[in-house]
Write a structure and sequence with these properties.
Elements (H helix, E strand, L loop, with lengths): L1 H12 L5 H4 L4 H19 L3 H4 L9 H5 L2 H14 L7 H30 L4 H15 L10 H25 L3 H19 L9 H10 L5
Helix pairs in contact: 1-3, 3-7, 6-10, 7-8, 7-10, 8-9
């Protein structure tokens, strides 16, 4: 779906007079709400949540929480590198939190929720590698949003490392919730770092989302 959306937008942009339309949307903002709805149906109506998230947070021991010290360190490093600042309005902050939550829910729920569940019968190594590589290669679609080849390549490499850690944590921890929170927090820090250069009074939410995605802020 992401590939189809990106290709369609790319082709639209090549048509005379179509640039204004393409600038209003990007593959992620166009498709992720549908992925979120589909995941909600799978987890609630199809009762898949317990299969992909068998471990309740209330059952977590100190040792299990300790597994997330490395992800926490990644967020701290991102915090210092991005030097984020709070937006000038509460509405802007809420919009960024919602966007980060959407990405965290969809990507963790899809790649290390359902994909891992479907791939595990083929072996742990296969499940980790395939889900992580698929997650990393998805970021190649940022090329269609105008991102440079060099920046996209770096993002793919980082996403592969991020995905491998997420896959291993999902197996060891047995819960997607901390991973969703980690992913959303990482992206939110990146968004707030980008927001330092934006004026929410003159830049619309839709255009800001496009800017964040083009800068590779979203994992």
């Amino acid at each position: 779906m992401l590939g189809a959306a990106g290709t369609a937008l790319y082709l639209m942009g090549s048509q005379p007079g179509a640039a204004g339309v393409v600038q209003q949307v990007q593959p992620v903002t166009l498709v992720y709400p549908f992925f979120a709805l589909w995941l909600a149906v799978m987890y609630v109506a199809r009762r898949q949540w317990r299969a992909v998230c068998p471990q309740r947070l209330s059952e977590f021991t100190a040792a299990r929480w300790g597994l997330f010290l490395v992800p926490l360190l990644v967020v701290v490093i991102n915090l210092f590198s991005q030097r984020p600042a709070l937006p000038q309005s509460v509405a802007h902050l809420i919009s960024l939190i919602a966007l980060a939550g959407l990405v965290g829910f969809v990507e963790e729920g899809l790649y290390w929720g359902l994909f891992m569940k479907w791939l595990l019968p083929r072996g742990v190594m296969t499940a980790v590698l395939v889900s992580s590589v698929a997650f990393a290669l998805t970021h190649a679609l940022n090329l269609l949003g105008g991102q440079s080849v060099a920046a996209t390549a770096m993002q793919i490499v980082f996403s592969l490392l991020f995905g491998t850690v997420a896959a291993l944590l999902r197996l060891r921890a047995g819960s997607l919730l901390p991973l969703m929170l980690w992913h959303a927090t990482f992206d939110l820090v990146s968004f707030l770092g980008t927001a330092r250069h934006e004026n929410p009074r003159v830049v619309g939410f839709e255009h800001r989302c496009i800017g964040y995605l083009r800068r590779g802020a979203v994992l």
